[in-house]
Amino acid sequence: MFTFITHPVDRAAALYEELKLSAEGQTLNADLISMTLLDYANHRLGNGASAKGPLSLKENNFVVRSLAQVPMDVPLHGGHVAHAEQVLKKFALIGSLHDEETALTSWKRIQKLYGWRGDESCIKSLLPKSSETKIAEDSEEYKLLAELNEYDMVFYDGVQKNFDDQGRLKIFQNL
Fold this sequence. Notes:
By secondary structure, this protein is mainly α. It has one domain. Helices cover 55% and strands 5% of the residues. The protein is built from 9 helices and 2 strands. It has helices at residues 8-23, 30-33, 37-45, 62-68, 78-91, 100-114, 121-124, 140-148, 150-167; strands at residues 2-5, 93-96. The chain has a two-stranded parallel sheet with strand order 1-2. Helix 3 (37-45) packs parallel to helix 8 and helix 5 (78-91) runs parallel beside helix 9 (150-167). It is globular, with a radius of gyration of 18 Å.
């Protein structure tokens, strides 16, 4: 099995964009159409009067919660992060979408392990289309989304280390 990881803030921003696109023409999420990313982040954190209504469910730390099988109503702790990291380390070849170089390295590892052929266009299609989609680390949006996904942030750093460790395996030498 293999998986690709992406930065938690990038994932949360992509979710916002996807929800916003799917909200067009729907009355259920009509308030999302006029929300900025900052409004959305505040809304998800439960800040302000806008934190009520159909979007009030606080989606947070999705990856850690999924891998460690922790429901939304249960508080997370470091043990959940460690468990989630071990799940990936034990069962998956880790691919990273951190940037184009690491994404291409990931693709080469998958090709090597599974004997796949093909060009790099499929992996490039997973990358953000421009630097405009990146959120500045010093922005309020970044800070709020990082706070909302604090355990996924720690997990991401640990999994990046596991990605580097897997790259040192003999099978992936000379890629």
